[in-house]
Specification:
Layout: E1 7-10, H1 18-31, E2 35-37, H2 56-59, H3 65-68, H4 80-100, E3 103-109, H5 116-121, E4 126-129, E5 141-143, H6 148-164, E6 169-175, H7 203-220, E7 226-230, H8 238-243, E8 249-253, E9 264-268, H9 283-296, E10 300-303, H10 307-310, H11 318-329, H12 335-350, H13 355-375, H14 383-389, H15 407-410, H16 440-472, H17 477-522, H18 533-560, H19 586-600, H20 603-607
Parallel strand pairs: 1-2, 1-10, 2-3, 3-6, 6-7, 7-8, 8-9, 9-10
Antiparallel strand pairs: 4-5
Helix pairs in contact: 1-4, 1-11, 6-7, 9-11, 11-12, 12-13, 13-16, 14-17, 16-17, 17-18, 18-19
Length: about 625
């Protein structure tokens, strides 16, 4: 059989159950996947040194080499037990990959920032500022990889990882330029920056030396590990960057970079992330990626590249794995061939009697994702993640005057808002910091039009899966997918309700302000100071919207009861909730939200003068 791809890497950020990891590895090996990543470790909550600074929520979900093998200089920062647990988990996964006949890949964010106290002791090691200034309070700096001592840390740690893996470490993938990781004088959120002493070193020389040093001790014992780095912009020309790399090195094209070919590892993530909902496959998207890479002649690819935005634990992965397997046996390119392939996959998994309904559901899920991405203004496909989670739209009450909520009413959601600037602690739901999404009635009309088209696709998928699940039974995998899509639909309704509420309440407040001014000038009798017809209609519309969100929140709380909570990613413990991870008491928080909204719903009437403010 002709080899279609040299490398297919599947990333699995949070598969901590080793029985599940073994099943996943065996399925992947049978499908023709070449590598699984095995170095993802538990979230490093200990990094959060200031709860008011949200930026480190990005870094705590990513693995850095020096979190696993901290050098002496970082021993006071990285907890000993944390690093020990990480190495034990990595070792166990490596053994499973070896048994399955798979190669190991590490996916790392490096060079990762270090705490300021380390640089206070060793200022000569300070490299570039690597935070995102609009989304942080404290500046963060990574070490300078031009410094020989820093290079030695990475050289030693990669050799240690190779030994720990039982020599199955075949691929090192490094993303830089994001989440607190960065290289001197590359294009970072703070612009190109770093110490003056290394400013004139050519970027291809800097990256090339880092790669050679990282591999040198592995190569001394006969290892043939390859290393790819990317994610940030190092040079305008990828070919020029590659020219300075060792033979075993290459460029990692992360997600939207959209590059492939010789010595390039092409990374992909989903067009529209459904995180935190689990168990809803989109095999057509995977098939389209495979087909496109095959036609372009791209031989090295990695799927699902961003765990902070996906939290992918491979629930419901069988359609995706089987799609990869089917494509590798017989590549397809035309739309009709793809549909035929997916229909067979659907029939093989769920029975021939359900094949057409399941296929239609998958097509609708894929089309829904395309519409949702078009409706998504400014989040790059991460609309759910950056709104329902990071701004807690899902549990945050919609009220006319959020600035008047008591501390107790804010206490269950405010600590988890991804907001760094106190000025952004505003009642504006659409302020995602640093950008505000969607403006005015025109923007809202366009958003609703495209969003509704996507929403209808997910509803169609639900109807198809529900019909198939009736045939399969209440305990089937299809019944589980029905439940997951019902949860997703509630989250999508929440997004639409929040966007509409913010635009409409702003409009109503503007109208009320103008009417108040008009009344104070021309209508002296207090009893006549009532809102004009326009604001009355706005009030009716907003009250309908508020009732819809209350009902939606209660419906979602009901869906999460019992085993439903297993279909959404939440923290395991109450103290592990973050801006990017919902709390274990999510259903309880939804009930709090609805009670607060009911307690404040009359404020809409106060706003337009139907009753006096209390």
């Amino acid at each position: 059989m002709k080899k279609i791809f040299n490398t297919i890497v599947l990333r699995n950020p949070f598969v901590e159950d080793m029985k599940k990891f073994r099943e996943f590895a065996n399925r992947s090996a049978d499908a023709g996947v070449t590598h699984l990543t095995f170095t993802e470790i538990e979230r490093s909550y200990w990094e959060i040194d200031d709860p008011a600074d949200p930026y480190l929520n990005w870094s705590i979900v990513h693995t850095s080499m020096l979190k696993i093998f901290p050098p002496e200089i970082l021993k006071d920062w990285v907890p000993t037990e944390y690093a020990k647990r990480a190495r034990e988990m990595i070792s166990e996964r490596a053994s499973i990959l070896k048994e399955a006949g798979l190669k190991g890949a590490s996916f790392l964010y490096d060079p990762m920032y270090w705490p300021e106290e380390v640089f206070q002791r060793r200022p000569d090691l300070r490299g570039p500022r690597t935070d995102m200034p609009e989304r942080c309070i404290h500046p963060r700096y990574s070490p300078c990889i031009d410094h020989p001592e820093v290079l030695s840390f990475y050289r030693d740690s990669f050799r240690s990882l190779y030994d720990l893996s039982g020599k199955i470490l075949d691929l090192i993938i490094i993303r830089s330029g994001d989440s607190g990781a960065g290289v001197c004088w590359s294009d970072l959120y703070n612009g190109a920056n770093g110490p003056e002493k290394c400013r004139n070193i050519r970027m291809q020389d800097r990256i090339g030396r880092f790669m050679r040093e990282s591999l040198s001790d592995i190569q001394k014992v006969g290892g043939e590990t390859r290393i790819f780095i990317g994610g940030g912009k190092f040079l305008d020309s990828v070919a020029e960057l590659i020219s300075g790399m060792p033979e075993a090195g290459g460029f990692y094209s992360h997600a939207r970079t959209g590059k492939g070919g010789e010595r390039i590892l092409s990374g992909f993530h989903s067009n529209f992330s459904l995180y935190p909902v689990k168990g809803i496959p989109n095999p057509l998207e995977t098939l389209d990626r495979l087909s496109s890479c095959h036609e372009l002649g791209w031989k090295d690819i990695v799927f699902f590249t961003c765990p902070a935005l996906y939290g992918n634990d491979w629930d419901g992965d069988l359609p995706v794995i089987n799609t990869i397997s089917s494509f590798l046996r017989r590549p397809v390119t035309s739309r009709s061939e793809k549909i035929a392939l997916l229909r067979k996959v659907a029939g093989d998994i769920h029975g021939s009697e359900n094949a057409d309904d399941v296929l239609d559901a998958w097509l609708n899920i894929s089309e829904g994702a395309d519409f949702m991405k078009a409706a998504d203004i400014g989040t790059g496909g991460f609309f759910i993640f950056l709104t329902s989670l990071a701004q807690r739209w899902l549990t945050r009450p919609l009220v006319a005057f959020p600035e008047n909520l008591s501390e107790d009413e804010r206490s269950y959601y405010k600590p988890y808002l991804f907001q760094a600037n106190p000025a952004h602690e505003s009642p504006d739901l659409l302020d995602l910091e640093p950008a505000r999404i969607i403006e005015g009635a025109g923007g809202l009309q366009l958003f609703n039009q495209v969003f509704d088209a996507g929403f209808s696709k997910y509803n169609s998928a639900l109807a198809k899966l529900r019909r198939a699940s009736v045939r399969s039974g209440a305990d089937s995998e299809l019944a589980k997918q029905v439940h997951a899509i019902q949860i997703l639909i509630c989250i999508l309704r929440n997004i639409k309700n929040c966007v509409n509420f913010q635009i409409k309440i702003e409009r109503l407040k503007n109208i009320a302000s103008m009417e108040k001014e008009y009344c104070s000038k021309f209508i002296q009798h207090k009893a006549m100071r009532r809102a004009m017809i326009e604001s009355r209609w706005e009030r009716v519309e907003i009250n309908r919207l508020l009732r819809a969100e209350i009902d939606n929140s209660l419906e979602l709380a009901g869906l999460l009861e019992g085993r439903g909570i297993e279909l959404i990613e939440t923290a395991s413990l109450s103290n592990q909730q973050t801006a990017f991870l919902l709390g274990v008491n999510l259903a309880e928080d939804l009930h709090k939200k609805t009670k607060i909204m009911m307690n404040h719903i009359a404020e809409i009437d106060q706003l337009i003068g139907f009753m006096e403010s209390r």
